[in-house]
Amino acid sequence: MANYTAADIKALRERTGAGMMDVKKALDEANGDADKAMEIIRVKGLKGATKREGRSAAEGLVTAKVVDGTVGVMVEVNCETDFVAKSDKFIALAEKVLDVAIASGAADAEALQAAEVDGKPMPEFVIEEAAALGEKVVVRRVARVEGALVDAYLHRTSKDLPAQVGVLVAVDKAGDEAGTAAHDVAVHSAAMAPTYVTRDEVPAETVENERRVAEETAKAEGKPEAAMTKIVEGRLTGYFKEVVLVDQAFAKDTKKSVGKVLEEAGVAATGYARFRVGS
Protein backbone atom coordinates (compact mmCIF):
# COMPACT_ATOMS: atom_id res chain seq x y z
CA MET A 1 0.00 0.00 0.00
CA ALA A 2 1.27 3.47 -0.87
CA ASN A 3 2.86 5.38 1.97
CA TYR A 4 0.71 8.47 2.40
CA THR A 5 -1.83 9.89 4.84
CA ALA A 6 -5.12 11.77 4.74
CA ALA A 7 -3.11 14.92 5.43
CA ASP A 8 -1.02 14.22 2.31
CA ILE A 9 -4.20 13.90 0.24
CA LYS A 10 -5.53 17.17 1.63
CA ALA A 11 -2.24 18.98 0.98
CA LEU A 12 -2.04 17.76 -2.61
CA ARG A 13 -5.66 18.71 -3.27
CA GLU A 14 -4.93 22.21 -2.03
CA ARG A 15 -1.84 22.42 -4.27
CA THR A 16 -3.58 21.18 -7.40
CA GLY A 17 -7.31 21.71 -6.93
CA ALA A 18 -7.80 18.16 -8.27
CA GLY A 19 -10.54 15.83 -7.05
CA MET A 20 -9.95 13.42 -4.18
CA MET A 21 -10.00 10.25 -6.30
CA ASP A 22 -7.57 11.76 -8.82
CA VAL A 23 -5.22 12.72 -5.99
CA LYS A 24 -5.40 9.26 -4.40
CA LYS A 25 -4.75 7.53 -7.71
CA ALA A 26 -1.77 9.80 -8.38
CA LEU A 27 -0.33 9.15 -4.90
CA ASP A 28 -0.82 5.41 -5.39
CA GLU A 29 1.00 5.56 -8.72
CA ALA A 30 3.77 7.70 -7.21
CA ASN A 31 4.06 5.46 -4.14
CA GLY A 32 3.32 8.39 -1.86
CA ASP A 33 5.79 10.85 -3.43
CA ALA A 34 3.84 14.14 -3.45
CA ASP A 35 6.00 15.88 -6.07
CA LYS A 36 5.80 12.91 -8.43
CA ALA A 37 2.05 12.67 -7.82
CA MET A 38 1.67 16.33 -8.69
CA GLU A 39 3.51 15.74 -11.97
CA ILE A 40 1.22 12.79 -12.75
CA ILE A 41 -1.84 14.97 -12.15
CA ARG A 42 -0.36 17.68 -14.36
CA VAL A 43 0.38 15.28 -17.26
CA LYS A 44 -3.06 13.69 -17.08
CA GLY A 45 -4.59 17.14 -16.98
CA LEU A 46 -2.77 18.19 -20.15
CA LYS A 47 -4.06 15.08 -21.93
CA GLY A 48 -7.58 16.05 -20.91
CA ALA A 49 -7.31 19.67 -22.01
CA THR A 50 -9.02 19.05 -25.35
CA LYS A 51 -11.95 17.33 -23.67
CA ARG A 52 -12.40 20.31 -21.35
CA GLU A 53 -12.63 22.86 -24.17
CA GLY A 54 -16.36 22.41 -24.61
CA ARG A 55 -17.15 22.64 -20.92
CA SER A 56 -18.57 25.72 -19.24
CA ALA A 57 -16.35 27.92 -17.06
CA ALA A 58 -18.77 30.18 -15.20
CA GLU A 59 -17.09 30.30 -11.79
CA GLY A 60 -13.87 32.10 -10.92
CA LEU A 61 -12.73 35.40 -9.49
CA VAL A 62 -11.98 39.05 -10.15
CA THR A 63 -8.75 40.59 -8.92
CA ALA A 64 -7.28 44.09 -9.31
CA LYS A 65 -4.36 46.30 -8.34
CA VAL A 66 -3.62 50.03 -8.49
CA VAL A 67 -0.11 51.03 -9.52
CA ASP A 68 1.33 54.32 -8.24
CA GLY A 69 -2.18 55.44 -7.35
CA THR A 70 -2.88 56.35 -10.98
CA VAL A 71 -3.27 53.11 -12.96
CA GLY A 72 -5.81 50.44 -12.11
CA VAL A 73 -5.75 47.01 -13.75
CA MET A 74 -8.40 44.34 -13.26
CA VAL A 75 -8.80 40.80 -14.62
CA GLU A 76 -11.48 38.14 -14.53
CA VAL A 77 -10.32 34.52 -14.61
CA ASN A 78 -12.87 31.73 -14.87
CA CYS A 79 -12.97 28.05 -13.94
CA GLU A 80 -15.67 25.37 -13.74
CA THR A 81 -16.38 25.00 -10.01
CA ASP A 82 -16.32 27.10 -6.88
CA PHE A 83 -14.08 24.46 -5.26
CA VAL A 84 -11.30 25.34 -7.70
CA ALA A 85 -12.14 29.06 -7.60
CA LYS A 86 -11.26 29.23 -3.89
CA SER A 87 -8.15 27.04 -4.12
CA ASP A 88 -4.79 28.63 -3.40
CA LYS A 89 -3.43 27.43 -6.74
CA PHE A 90 -6.19 29.07 -8.78
CA ILE A 91 -5.93 32.31 -6.80
CA ALA A 92 -2.16 32.32 -7.40
CA LEU A 93 -2.76 31.73 -11.12
CA ALA A 94 -5.11 34.72 -11.29
CA GLU A 95 -2.63 36.94 -9.45
CA LYS A 96 0.07 35.89 -11.92
CA VAL A 97 -2.21 36.81 -14.82
CA LEU A 98 -2.89 40.19 -13.19
CA ASP A 99 0.85 40.85 -12.75
CA VAL A 100 1.41 40.10 -16.42
CA ALA A 101 -1.47 42.39 -17.40
CA ILE A 102 0.13 45.20 -15.40
CA ALA A 103 3.65 44.62 -16.73
CA SER A 104 2.55 44.25 -20.36
CA GLY A 105 0.23 47.24 -20.37
CA ALA A 106 -2.56 45.08 -21.80
CA ALA A 107 -5.88 46.91 -21.94
CA ASP A 108 -8.00 44.12 -23.41
CA ALA A 109 -8.15 40.32 -23.48
CA GLU A 110 -6.58 40.07 -26.93
CA ALA A 111 -3.50 42.01 -25.86
CA LEU A 112 -3.21 39.95 -22.67
CA GLN A 113 -3.37 36.69 -24.65
CA ALA A 114 -0.42 37.94 -26.69
CA ALA A 115 1.69 38.53 -23.57
CA GLU A 116 4.23 36.05 -22.20
CA VAL A 117 4.36 34.44 -18.76
CA ASP A 118 7.77 33.20 -17.68
CA GLY A 119 8.79 32.96 -21.34
CA LYS A 120 5.62 31.14 -22.42
CA PRO A 121 2.66 32.53 -24.37
CA MET A 122 -0.27 33.25 -22.07
CA PRO A 123 -2.52 30.53 -23.61
CA GLU A 124 0.18 27.89 -23.06
CA PHE A 125 0.71 29.00 -19.46
CA VAL A 126 -3.03 28.83 -18.75
CA ILE A 127 -3.39 25.35 -20.29
CA GLU A 128 -0.49 23.99 -18.24
CA GLU A 129 -1.81 25.49 -15.02
CA ALA A 130 -5.32 24.26 -15.79
CA ALA A 131 -3.96 20.77 -16.32
CA ALA A 132 -3.00 20.46 -12.67
CA LEU A 133 -6.36 21.90 -11.61
CA GLY A 134 -8.22 19.43 -13.80
CA GLU A 135 -10.68 22.07 -15.02
CA LYS A 136 -11.11 24.42 -17.92
CA VAL A 137 -9.60 27.82 -17.10
CA VAL A 138 -10.30 30.98 -19.10
CA VAL A 139 -8.69 34.41 -18.84
CA ARG A 140 -11.89 36.16 -19.78
CA ARG A 141 -11.22 39.89 -19.70
CA VAL A 142 -9.00 42.70 -18.51
CA ALA A 143 -9.62 46.39 -17.86
CA ARG A 144 -7.10 49.21 -17.49
CA VAL A 145 -8.19 52.57 -16.06
CA GLU A 146 -5.93 55.59 -15.62
CA GLY A 147 -6.44 58.93 -13.88
CA ALA A 148 -5.04 61.41 -11.39
CA LEU A 149 -6.26 58.95 -8.75
CA VAL A 150 -7.66 55.45 -9.18
CA ASP A 151 -9.46 53.33 -6.60
CA ALA A 152 -9.99 49.58 -6.85
CA TYR A 153 -12.69 47.77 -4.89
CA LEU A 154 -13.18 44.00 -4.73
CA HIS A 155 -16.37 42.52 -3.30
CA ARG A 156 -17.03 38.99 -2.09
CA THR A 157 -20.58 37.81 -2.71
CA SER A 158 -19.80 34.82 -0.47
CA LYS A 159 -17.38 34.77 2.45
CA ASP A 160 -16.15 31.35 1.32
CA LEU A 161 -15.13 32.53 -2.16
CA PRO A 162 -12.66 35.07 -3.56
CA ALA A 163 -14.00 38.34 -4.94
CA GLN A 164 -16.74 37.91 -7.53
CA VAL A 165 -17.19 41.63 -8.26
CA GLY A 166 -14.50 44.18 -9.01
CA VAL A 167 -14.63 47.93 -9.74
CA LEU A 168 -12.10 50.51 -10.87
CA VAL A 169 -12.94 54.23 -10.57
CA ALA A 170 -10.68 57.07 -11.74
CA VAL A 171 -11.06 60.74 -10.83
CA ASP A 172 -9.33 63.86 -12.12
CA LYS A 173 -7.65 64.99 -8.89
CA ALA A 174 -5.61 63.35 -6.15
CA GLY A 175 -5.73 63.86 -2.38
CA ASP A 176 -7.47 62.40 0.64
CA GLU A 177 -10.91 63.83 -0.14
CA ALA A 178 -10.66 62.68 -3.74
CA GLY A 179 -9.57 59.24 -2.59
CA THR A 180 -12.49 58.91 -0.20
CA ALA A 181 -14.97 59.96 -2.87
CA ALA A 182 -13.47 57.59 -5.46
CA HIS A 183 -13.64 54.70 -3.02
CA ASP A 184 -17.22 55.46 -2.01
CA VAL A 185 -18.22 55.56 -5.67
CA ALA A 186 -16.40 52.29 -6.36
CA VAL A 187 -18.29 50.59 -3.51
CA HIS A 188 -21.54 52.10 -4.80
CA SER A 189 -20.80 50.83 -8.30
CA ALA A 190 -20.20 47.29 -7.10
CA ALA A 191 -23.78 47.19 -5.85
CA MET A 192 -25.57 49.38 -8.41
CA ALA A 193 -23.77 48.23 -11.59
CA PRO A 194 -23.86 51.35 -13.77
CA THR A 195 -23.03 50.80 -17.43
CA TYR A 196 -21.71 54.26 -18.32
CA VAL A 197 -19.99 57.10 -16.46
CA THR A 198 -21.89 59.99 -18.09
CA ARG A 199 -24.83 60.39 -20.47
CA ASP A 200 -22.42 61.35 -23.25
CA GLU A 201 -21.10 57.77 -23.24
CA VAL A 202 -24.50 56.22 -23.96
CA PRO A 203 -24.58 55.33 -27.69
CA ALA A 204 -26.92 57.55 -29.70
CA GLU A 205 -28.77 54.53 -31.09
CA THR A 206 -29.42 53.31 -27.55
CA VAL A 207 -30.85 56.68 -26.55
CA GLU A 208 -33.06 56.79 -29.63
CA ASN A 209 -34.31 53.27 -28.98
CA GLU A 210 -35.16 54.11 -25.37
CA ARG A 211 -36.94 57.25 -26.54
CA ARG A 212 -38.94 55.24 -29.10
CA VAL A 213 -39.92 52.62 -26.52
CA ALA A 214 -40.96 55.34 -24.06
CA GLU A 215 -43.09 57.05 -26.70
CA GLU A 216 -44.78 53.82 -27.86
CA THR A 217 -45.47 52.84 -24.25
CA ALA A 218 -46.97 56.24 -23.47
CA LYS A 219 -49.22 56.03 -26.54
CA ALA A 220 -50.32 52.52 -25.58
CA GLU A 221 -51.22 53.86 -22.14
CA GLY A 222 -53.38 56.54 -23.74
CA LYS A 223 -51.32 59.49 -22.55
CA PRO A 224 -52.39 62.86 -24.04
CA GLU A 225 -50.47 63.98 -27.13
CA ALA A 226 -49.88 67.43 -25.64
CA ALA A 227 -47.92 65.91 -22.76
CA MET A 228 -46.08 63.31 -24.85
CA THR A 229 -42.74 65.11 -25.12
CA LYS A 230 -42.54 65.76 -21.39
CA ILE A 231 -43.54 62.16 -20.57
CA VAL A 232 -41.00 60.67 -22.97
CA GLU A 233 -38.15 62.88 -21.72
CA GLY A 234 -39.09 62.05 -18.13
CA ARG A 235 -38.90 58.32 -18.84
CA LEU A 236 -35.60 58.78 -20.67
CA THR A 237 -34.25 60.58 -17.61
CA GLY A 238 -35.38 57.60 -15.55
CA TYR A 239 -33.40 55.31 -17.86
CA PHE A 240 -30.29 57.45 -17.40
CA LYS A 241 -30.70 57.23 -13.63
CA GLU A 242 -30.52 53.46 -13.92
CA VAL A 243 -27.49 53.05 -16.20
CA VAL A 244 -25.37 56.23 -15.87
CA LEU A 245 -23.04 56.39 -12.87
CA VAL A 246 -23.20 60.13 -12.16
CA ASP A 247 -27.01 60.12 -12.51
CA GLN A 248 -27.61 57.25 -10.10
CA ALA A 249 -28.87 57.91 -6.57
CA PHE A 250 -25.87 57.48 -4.25
CA ALA A 251 -26.23 54.23 -2.30
CA LYS A 252 -25.09 55.76 1.01
CA ASP A 253 -27.37 58.80 0.69
CA THR A 254 -30.11 58.42 -1.90
CA LYS A 255 -31.02 62.10 -1.61
CA LYS A 256 -27.85 62.85 -3.57
CA SER A 257 -26.72 61.68 -7.00
CA VAL A 258 -23.27 60.17 -7.45
CA GLY A 259 -22.43 63.21 -9.54
CA LYS A 260 -23.29 65.47 -6.61
CA VAL A 261 -21.10 63.44 -4.25
CA LEU A 262 -18.16 63.81 -6.64
CA GLU A 263 -18.87 67.50 -7.12
CA GLU A 264 -18.84 68.09 -3.36
CA ALA A 265 -15.42 66.41 -3.22
CA GLY A 266 -14.20 68.69 -6.00
CA VAL A 267 -13.57 65.89 -8.49
CA ALA A 268 -15.05 64.37 -11.64
CA ALA A 269 -15.09 60.71 -12.66
CA THR A 270 -12.84 60.10 -15.67
CA GLY A 271 -12.75 56.32 -15.86
CA TYR A 272 -14.72 53.29 -14.73
CA ALA A 273 -14.81 49.53 -15.15
CA ARG A 274 -16.85 46.85 -13.42
CA PHE A 275 -16.61 43.05 -13.68
CA ARG A 276 -18.87 40.44 -12.14
CA VAL A 277 -17.87 36.82 -12.57
CA GLY A 278 -19.90 35.17 -15.31
CA SER A 279 -21.92 38.23 -16.31
TrEMBL record:
Chief location of this protein within or outside the cell: cytoplasm
Pfam family for this entry, one: EF_TS
Ranges for region Involved in Mg(2+) ion dislocation from EF-Tu: 81-84
Molecular function per GO: translation elongation factor activity
Keywords of the record: Cytoplasm, Elongation factor, Protein biosynthesis
GO CC field: cytoplasm
Entry annotated with the keyword RNA-binding: no
Domain of life: Bacteria
Classification via InterPro entries: EF-Ts_dimer_sf, Transl_elong_EFTs/EF1B, Transl_elong_EFTs/EF1B_dimer, Transl_elong_Ts_CS, UBA-like_sf
Classification via SUPFAM superfamilies: Elongation factor Ts (EF-Ts), dimerisation domain, UBA-like
Gene3D superfamilies with a match to the protein in the record: 1.10.286.20, DNA helicase RuvA subunit, C-terminal domain (1.10.8.10), Elongation factor Ts, dimerisation domain (3.30.479.20)
Residue ranges annotated for the Translation elongation factor EFTs/EF1B dimerisation domain, each copy included: 72-278
Subcellular locations according to the entry: Cytoplasm
Family per similarity comment: Belongs to the EF-Ts family.
Functional note: Associates with the EF-Tu.GDP complex and induces the exchange of GDP to GTP. It remains bound to the aminoacyl-tRNA.EF-Tu.GTP complex up to the GTP hydrolysis stage on the ribosome.
The protein's name: Elongation factor Ts
Species the sequence originates in: Zhihengliuella flava
Native organism taxonomy: Bacteria, Bacillati, Actinomycetota, Actinomycetes, Micrococcales
